[in-house]
Specification:
Helix content is 47%, strand content 18%. It is an alpha/beta fold. The chain has a single domain, classed as Rossmann fold. α2 crosses α6 and α8 crosses α9. It is globular, with a radius of gyration of 17 Å. The mean pLDDT is 94. The protein binds 2'-deoxycytidine-5'-monophosphate. 2'-deoxycytidine-5'-monophosphate binds next to α2, α5 and α9.
C-alpha cells in the first residue's frame, strides 16, 4: 500500500541549514520542496532593482501595486536542484547575496507581502506531499501540518557556516563579524516583528544542530518521518 502523504513544516532561525536538510529530505522521500525564504528574498531583489527601498524605508504603496507583477516560480536545474525564478529570470545566485540578505527582513515584516506569499504557499501545498521551509510554516501557513520541526543552532556556529558559504562563492570582502551581525540582527527582526514573528509551534519537534553532523541530522528527520507515516 502506498504511504499516506503528509505536510512537513520546517521552521527556525536563519543559517541553520534548514534549506539543505529540507531539500535532502524531500528528495529522499519523493516530496516537493518549497523554500519560502527564497520567495521573500525574490520580492526584496525586485524592490532593490526597482528602487523601492531607500535605506531602511520601503515604498509600500508602490510595492503593493507591483505585487501582482512579481511572479515567483521554482524550476529544477540539470542536477535536479530547485532554483528560483523572478518573472522567468533565474535569480537563484542573486537572492543569496549580502545585498539582498541585508534588506530581506524589512520586506518580510510587511503584512501585505506576507499575506500574498502565504496565499501562494498554501496553494502550492494543497495536495500535501510537500516539505516547506521558512519561519511561519508550522504556525501560520500550515498549522495542521502532520510533521513540524523547529531548527535552531548557536549564532556563532551559524555565522561561521554562512561565512564559509560566502567565501566558497568567491566573496572575499565580507568579514565573519559582519556575517555574525547580520545573523543576530535577522534573529532580532524575525522574532520581534508584529506580523507572524518566528516562534516555535507548540507541537513542533526541536532540532538543535549546533553539534550535529549532516548524517546525524538526516537520520533524525527520517526517524521522525517514518514514525509519523507508518
Ligand atoms: O530562510 P532565509 O534566510 O532564506 O529567509 C530570508 C528571510 O525571509 C529571513 O530574514 C526571514 C524571512 N522569512 C520569513 O519571514 N518567513 C518565511 N516563511 C521565510 C523567510
Amino acid at each position: 500500500m502506498e504511504k499516506k502523504k503528509i505536510t512537513i513544516a520546517l521552521d527556525g532561525y536563519s543559517s541553520t541549514g534548514k534549506s539543505t536538510m529540507a531539500k535532502a529530505l524531500a528528495k529522499k522521500i519523493g516530496y516537493a520542496y518549497i523554500d519560502t525564504g527564497a520567495m521573500y528574498r525574490t520580492v526584496t531583489l525586485y524592490c532593490l532593482d526597482n528602487n523601492l527601498i531607500d535605506g531602511d524605508t520601503v515604498n509600500e504603496a508602490a510595492l503593493e501595486a507591483a505585487l501582482p507583477e512579481i511572479h515567483i516560480t521554482f524550476k529544477a536545474n540539470d542536477e535536479g536542484r530547485s532554483e528560483t525564478y523572478l518573472n522567468g529570470v533565474n535569480v537563484e545566485q542573486e537572492i543569496r547575496s549580502m545585498r539582498v540578505s541585508s534588506k530581506v527582513s524589512i520586506i518580510a515584516a510587511l503584512g501585505f507581502v506576507r499575506r500574498d506569499m502565504v496565499r501562494q504557499q498554501q496553494a502550492m501545498g494543497r495536495d500535501k506531499g510537500i516539505v516547506m521551509d521558512g519561519r511561519d510554516i508550522g504556525t501560520v501557513v500550515f498549522p495542521d501540518a502532520e510533521m513540524k520541526v523547529f531548527v535552531t543552532a548557536d549564532p556563532m556556529v551559524r555565522a561561521q557556516r554562512r561565512f564559509d558559504e560566502l567565501r566558497g562563492k568567491g566573496d572575499t570582502t565580507t568579514t565573519l563579524e559582519e556575517v555574525l551581525a547580520n545573523v543576530t540582527e535577522r534573529d532580532r527582526i524575525d522574532t520581534t516583528r508584529a506580523e507572524s514573528p518566528l516562534r516555535q509551534a507548540d507541537d513542533a519537534l526541536v532540532l538543535d544542530n549546533s553539534h550535529m553532523t549532516i548524517a546525524e541530522q538526516d537520520k533524525w528527520l527520517m526517524d521522525h518521518f517514518n514514525r509519523l507515516t507508518q
